[in-house]
TrEMBL record:
Keyword Coiled coil attributed: no
InterPro entries: NST/OST, P-loop_NTPase, Sulfotransferase_dom
Protein name listed in UniProt: Sulfotransferase
GO terms assigned for molecular function: [heparan sulfate]-glucosamine 3-sulfotransferase activity
One Gene Ontology term, aspect cellular component: Golgi membrane
Gene encoding the protein: HS3ST6
Region (Disordered): 49-80
UniProt-annotated binding residues for 3'-phosphoadenylyl sulfate: 96-100, 177, 185, 301-305
Organism field: Callithrix jacchus
Disulfide bonds listed in the record: 284-296
Length: 338
């Protein structure tokens, strides 16, 4: 957004020619209105309703006994139909990386119970309290793992501290994708909701092809190394699993297998559960027993990307390269984006 602001200021300074002023600013007014609509789309949504009225806030002893390391043998024993627990594992990022696909794939596992919607507790709804958060969770039985996914956690500065306060044993899953492709996908999603949005190039750079505008969230999210630096202040690297968004498409069973290992689960979800949908360009789930059709993600997944000039793509690739290399070093994984 900073790039757009600079353009407005520059034209305003050079315009001041009596009666011609209002006409010269008319296009600028249109841009401001469109950008305003874009920003409103990005405002936080309402917090989800609780599954039931929250009970008393959990005591420290209850918190420590109900949040355990996934896969450990001392998971809390359920009483009756199970009970609501804090998540032992979170998918914390990143937006447009493949988090929804991963969550849906994991929900095939009988020992994974996951909240379907994004609660946004650790970024937008934290003031509601831990009792409210726990009330959102599905009931789990002995040996089952509770999960939720909210991709914006990874880029929220307060999230790691808040999650650590809930449980320092929380396991954290981050789905990452080539930051250039991710940014274009992010833009495509916003464009589908806000027709008339300025071009990708106009938002990604200041003053034409000037400096990359890191104030734009679509660009800023892809600075993975910077975001991970913040998380490593609270959690050791061993608490993270970094999933390749590209391999989640090309080899979903392999990536989901890594996640199952990380969570201490038996590899129940395998290649027999997937097939590649050529139309969507995305893996889908095989038809479940008793179902009439295979299950694919919604229409918004796998949507076509707008065409972006190669000069713009190359500029962004050059911009992200040093951040990508640092991220490879921090995680010990080369994702092959460069």
């Amino acid at each position: 957004m900073a790039g757009s602001g600079g353009a407005v200021g520059g034209q305003g300074a050079g315009a001041g020619q009596g009666a011609a002023l209002p006409a010269s600013r008319a296009p600028l007014l249109l841009v401001v209105l469109v950008l305003g609509a874009y920003c409103l789309r990005a405002l936080p949504s309402r917090c989800p309703p609780a599954a039931r009225a929250p009970g008393p806030a959990p005591t420290p002893a209850e918190t420590s006994s109900s949040v355990r390391r996934p896969g450990a043998t001392d998971l809390p024993v359920a009483i009756g139909p199970g009970r609501r627990r804090f998540p032992q594992a979170l998918i914390v990022g990143v937006k447009k990386g493949g988090t929804r696909a991963l969550l849906e794939f994991l929900r095939l596992h009988p020992d994974v119970r996951a909240l379907g919607s994004e609660p946004h507790f650790f970024d937008r709804c934290y003031e509601r309290g831990l009792a409210w958060y726990r009330s959102l969770m599905p009931r789990t039985l002995d040996g089952q793992i509770t999960m939720e996914k909210t991709p914006s956690y990874f880029v929220t500065r307060e999230a790691p501290r808040r999650i650590h306060a809930m449980s320092p044993d929380t396991k954290l899953i981050v789905v990452v994708r080539n930051p250039v492709t991710r940014a274009i996908s992010d833009y495509a999603q916003t464009l589908s909701k806000t027709p008339g949005l300025p071009s990708f190039r106009a938002l990604a750079f200041r003053h034409g092809l000037g400096p990359v505008d890191t104030a734009w969230s679509a660009v800023r999210i892809g600075l993975y190394a910077q975001h991970l630096d913040n998380w490593l202040r609270y959690f050791p690297l061993s608490h993270f699993l970094f999933v390749s968004g590209e391999r989640l498409v090309s080899d979903p069973a392999g990536e989901v297998g890594r996640v199952q290992d990380f969570l201490g689960l038996k590899r129940v979800v395998t290649d027999k559960h997937f097939y590649f949908n050529v139309t969507k360009g995305f893996p889908c789930l095989q038809k479940a027993q008793g179902s009439r059709r295979p299950r694919c993600l919604g229409k918004s997944k796998g949507r076509p990307h707008p065409r972006v000039a190669q000069a713009v793509v190359r500029r962004l690739q050059d911009f992200y390269r040093p951040f990508n290399h640092k991220f490879y070093q921090m995680t010990g994984q080369d994702f092959g984006w460069d």
